[in-house]
Amino acid sequence: MLTTTDPALRIKSAAVLMFAQRGYAATSIRDLAKAVNMTNAGIYHHVASKEALLAGLMREGHAGLIETTHRLLDGVDRPRDRLALLIGSLTAIHALNPMTTRVMDGELRSLTPGSGAHDEIIALRDAYEGIWRDTIAEGVARGAFIVANQKLSRLALMSMCTGTSEWYRPDGESPLEEVCAEFVGIGLTAVNADPASRIPHLDLSLLPIYPWEPR
Amino acid sequence: MLTTTDPALRIKSAAVLMFAQRGYAATSIRDLAKAVNMTNAGIYHHVASKEALLAGLMREGHAGLIETTHRLLDGVDRPRDRLALLIGSLTAIHALNPMTTRVMDGELRSLTPGSGAHDEIIALRDAYEGIWRDTIAEGVARGAFIVANQKLSRLALMSMCTGTSEWYRPDGESPLEEVCAEFVGIGLTAVNADPASRIPHLDLSLLPIYPWEPR
DNA sequence: CTAGCTACCGAACGCCCGTTAGGTGTAGGA
DNA sequence: TCCTACACCTAACGGGCGTTCGGTAGCTAG
Q1: Dihedrals φ, ψ of A142, to 5°?
Q2: Each residue of B111-164: pLDDT tens digit?
Q3: B163, CA 20 to 30 Å: which among A68, A152, A165, B23?
């Protein structure tokens, strides 16, 4: 329950929390309504359907991730620096928005296959993965990375980053900067990138905290 | 739908498939019954409840993982070798049993909190994580590993391994041996283990394929 | 031939689901 | 003062849910 006045945002906030914790299928409109002090019918004044609510969260989530990533990488040329920013930002966004990213990463199966929303989210996810794919391919082509299998390396690194939303706690023992630095270090050595030269600084304040992410 | 004659096993097999693909909450007993050519009532001759079915899969899954791990590590003394076996086996078990491991990793939230089953699975999961924790701590204590933060390194590596169940395909471009070798390499360099000495061989045929894992 | 067991089925129980139709109250502008 | 727009409500719809009860068909042992 958030202190925002905008009811649509309060609904999104409660929804992303419950979808992340119990799962979409296990969350009823009535549960959601109770969390924002409405009746089930009241929800439908702000939301077309339960599935449209999920689709909206996932669409805006992915769009924000892609937009932020393009902004961060803009003007960065060296593959090693680009990969460092990809690893750091994906990790940090998962740490800063655990509920939203859990829904983004885990609830694709809850969108009706073949519906426009389903295809749209898949396209967004593929677009994001394409940035990683291209970055690694470019690094290998330029001789900046040496890997046995590009796809394997990418999947290993992305799993490591996305896993962050499952365990990171802001009041835990390791500050976010340390997590990102550690993961960037692991990632760069995993692709045999030059370990000597400086790693570009990642300004965490440039990363999105989704307005509906529960506080 | 499996060709086994044992109906209890056919139910487990269909259940783990549907739980992994749609999620526990989105799978009904009637769906499950249809998949094994029974009526909903017929299921209850073999299973006490829907939740007991999930709990059984998770309990036996974790128990098999822990038992296999202890067997693999038995007699292996050097932390570097132990960690290599942990990484390789966790990766391979996720690749060989994608449905079971997805349920094990993702459906803990579907067990009623405070129920015996819920606490039991948490204890099993903690026991398994303890093996990793102890291995890394021992390696650091003995000077075999150098890490900034033990918990961070463990979580990064385990996320990488468990992610395998989400993307690995037996008919894909990389054979399982390559995946394991690659991940072991990434993991050992992540903890700054001695990169020179030989990595112990992991016999994939020693790893469990759960009898209910769909084929 | 019968008794008992296993493996089911048909029908129903009470409950909860997503969604909708139609109404109510309130706030702000003309 | 009336009007419109918004933000919600009560009540209900058809349907699916997990689960249970009371069977029944088929097999095996005595």
Answers
A1: -85, -5
A2: 999 999 999 999 999 999 999 999 999 999 999 999 999 999 999 999 999 999
A3: A68
Q: Judge contact between A158 and A90, C-beta under 8 A.
A: yes
Q: Which domains does chain A have, with CATH numbers?
A: 1-47 (1.10.10.60), 55-206 (1.10.357.10)
Taking alpha carbons only, the member of A158, A162, A157, A161 closest to residue A188 is A157
- Alpha-carbon distance of B88 to B107, in angstroms, equals 24
- Tell if the CB–CB gap between B163 and A162 is shorter than 8 Å: yes
The integer distance in angstroms from the CA atom of B25 to the C1' atom of D23 is 31
A 20-59 residues, CB < 7 A, strand C: 27-31, 40-41, 43-44, 49-51
Under DSSP, the state recorded for A142 is T
**A140–B contact, CB cutoff 8 A:** no
Q: Which residue of A has its CA nearest to B23?
A: A25
What is the residue type of B40?
N
A23 in contact with chain B, both atoms CB, cutoff 8 A: yes
The count of C-alpha atoms lying within 13 angstroms of the C-alpha of A49, restricted to the half-sphere facing its C-beta, is 6
Q: Two tokens at B49? A: 């409840």
Instruction: Per-residue pLDDT tens, chain A, 215 aa: give them.
Output: 334 679 999 999 999 999 999 999 999 999 999 999 999 999 999 999 999 999 999 999 999 999 999 999 999 999 999 999 999 999 999 999 999 999 999 999 999 999 999 999 999 999 999 999 999 999 999 999 999 999 999 999 999 999 999 999 999 999 999 999 999 999 999 999 998 788 999 999 999 899 999 99
Q: Supply B169's token pair.
A: 């395909």
Q: Which residue from A minimizes the CA distance to B153?
A: A182
Measured CA to CA, the distance from residue B69 to residue B89 in angstroms comes to 7
Q: Taking CB atoms and an 8 Å limit, are B159 and A166 in contact across chains?
A: yes
Contact A190, B186 (CB under 8 A): yes
Whether B21 contacts chain A with CB within 8 A: yes
From the list B158, B167, B178, which residue is nearest A155 (CB)?
A: B167
Cross-chain CB nearest to A186 (options B24, B173, B190): B190
